[in-house]
Amino acid sequence: MNVDVDELSNDPSVMKENDKALAAAAKVMGMDKSAYSTYLDKVVAEKAALAKQSKEMQDKILKGLTAASEVLGVKESDLISDMGKIKSNNEALNAAVNTSGIPKAMFTAIINNQIAANAVAADKGIDLSIHDYLILNLGLFLLMFATNGISFMFSCIFNLSKNYMALGAGIPLTFFLFQMMGQVSDNLKGIKYLTLNSLFDTHAILNGGNYLLQFIALAVVGIVLYTIGMRVFEKKDLPL
User: Fold this and answer.
1) What is the pLDDT of residues 82-103, one digit of tens each?
2) Where are the domains of the chain?
3) Is the pTM of this model over 0.70?
4) 7: Cβ–Cβ under 8 A, 6 or more apart, which residues?
């Protein structure tokens, strides 16, 4: 038929104008030409009904927007791009609902969908650097490796859980609290450098700064702590 698929989808009835095309389509569907022709008429009628309903809904929404724009004193075009103004003004929302004849819950849902669509259209996304992503994960692993080294070492040194918890869990928790305090107040900004967390500098990683020495330090700290813990555990007498 020399017709695009999109054109056939929009108007399947054009197949009825070509006996060969109609026969070929009917064969694929497992129907005879007469049954398939009737099926096409039904599809076309349903598409027409849906198009009519869509047009009627669009007209109702437009009437509602016109009423809301009059209440708000803004142009309809400006209101379409920022329909949140209708939700924030009960008078405008009620005017839109009453004029359009659309139930309030449905009109509110339409506004929410349009707001979401505008947000998606305006979202240009972000450029994800695989290199930065991998480096961030490596840095986080090294931080966890060094921090876990503290817990591992003290669990090997002490026999009583209360002693292990005081240092093995207390020191990492203190590091976390110091980090939080340094971010909350500029006066306490320097306190974060008393923690291992300061060696994981996400700003430097994402902005092309120097982070290699910090990563090396975290790796060395973790290796040393795990080594000390294993050596102590090998030589200690376990209580029976």
Assistant:
1) 777 887 888 888 888 898 888 8
2) 5-122, 130-235
3) no
4) 14
